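User: I'm preparing a small set of examples for a lab meeting where we compare how different chains pack in three dimensions. I only have the primary sequence for this one, and I'd like the structure in token form so I can line it up with the others. Please keep the answer compact; I'll paste it straight into my notes.
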Amino acid sequence: MAIPTHRKTRFDDRLCAVIAAATAGEALRQLRVAAKFTRTMELRLDWLRSDAERERFLKALRPVARRNQNWTLLATCRRVLGGGKLSGGAQAELHWLSQARAAGCRWCDLEVETLRELPGQSARAFPVPEKILLSYHDFARTPPLPRKFAHTGRGEADAFKIAARARTIADSVRLLRLNRGANDVVAVPMGEIGLPARLLALRAGSALAYAPVAEATAPGQVSLREFRELYRADALTARTAVYGVIGNPIGHSLSPLLHNTGFIAAKRDAVYLPFLVESLKDFLDAVPEFALRGFSVTIPHKQTILKYLATCDPAAEKLGAVNTVVVGKNGRLSGSNTDYLGVLRALHRKIALKDARALVFGAGGSARAAAFALADAGAEVLICARRDSAARALARACGAQVIARKHLSAARFELIVNTTPVGMHPHTDASPLEAKELNCEVAMDLVYRPLRTRLLQMAEKKGIATVSGAEMFLAQGFAQWELWMGQPAPEAAMRRAVLRKLQADEKSRR
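Assistant: Understood. Below is the structure token output for the 510-residue chain.
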């Protein structure tokens, strides 16, 4: 993808904070928060719960707008027809946009659907804000996209926005390409699949990128604070190195927090993005478009990715699973596995692995790393998995034994390691094993979100020592960072950020 540089757009601050609240008081509070990050704010008048709240907010806005003439206020009062909350027709929308102009808004967002209902398909005869951002939304798909926008050329609008749900990564790439050679186009890929492209929109030349102060107003948004402070998405340039994590699901992943914190602490011009990947081919075709230099691999792609690699280190090849990929300058993919090291580092202070009897529960990519690591450390490894065939295949590969689920209650182990995703956020009440099956001295859960999974809570009640998956997650992440950056990771800062988040999650659930 060609990445524009230093092109003047129609907005001084291209990061647009979204103010969306039910009450005037909350909207004003969000406005004050937004001003700490940007001078461009979208005011979602349709989110205010009544006409009385809209009147109250706009009245209070007048003196604020007068005192802050350098702000760019963009009024939006989207109808239900266009995916908003305003009941009523075009006249109701135009009324509130006119009131917003009187309150100090220089820009407004007008839907294509509304424009089509107006005489001559023009809003210029109405007293709406002088600058018009004409918008089109498709919440179901990414439609065929135009080469140019006729309305802006004819003078009915000053800029054009198209927001569409990206059902594939290729869809999000098509949306970003709309920015090429333009300074008046806002491209917004919606949905979780479109999130990486949304974060790279300003880098690709979009005239604006949106981030909510509080509640998301469109699928796939990240908060204003995360947009600015974690991803630094308003400061990314053509020189910024792009990394990411691929998986399905991916919303639970703290890898973006881990690695972006590392980049910030080490003052590296790099960003790390979460890619929801349903099809590996869809993602890999987009690697050159996003100029990716490396990516982490998680469930369910750790084994499938192998067939796409040009090279693979011996340890990962032996494991038959990859969790780290380096993208060479020629586009060739090289695979490694840092999960193996992460398991050993997480356990080394808790248990002597030589001759320990260890149960690995699961047979996927993470299970392979755990089983090989434990076997190489001298443990007697037993595999139990939902699919007997997968358990037998893993046992053969690493010299382990298979044990049936029905025998776990009567068996005894020094160590039990859960490698399945059962119990992972948001399904935090689930456990892959029952309390009667936890007959061990140490229990480790590779799930790290939540910090104390249901499995670990049950183990603690039985007096069993526990190891959180956070320890393995951190250790494998440090090793990934070093592979990509070629220098030691800033471990203290990265650890603090992840543990603070996990502890905050725990506190919020109490």
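A couple of notes for your slides: The mean pLDDT is 94. Residues 64 and 276 are 41 Å apart (CA to CA).

User: Perfect, thanks.
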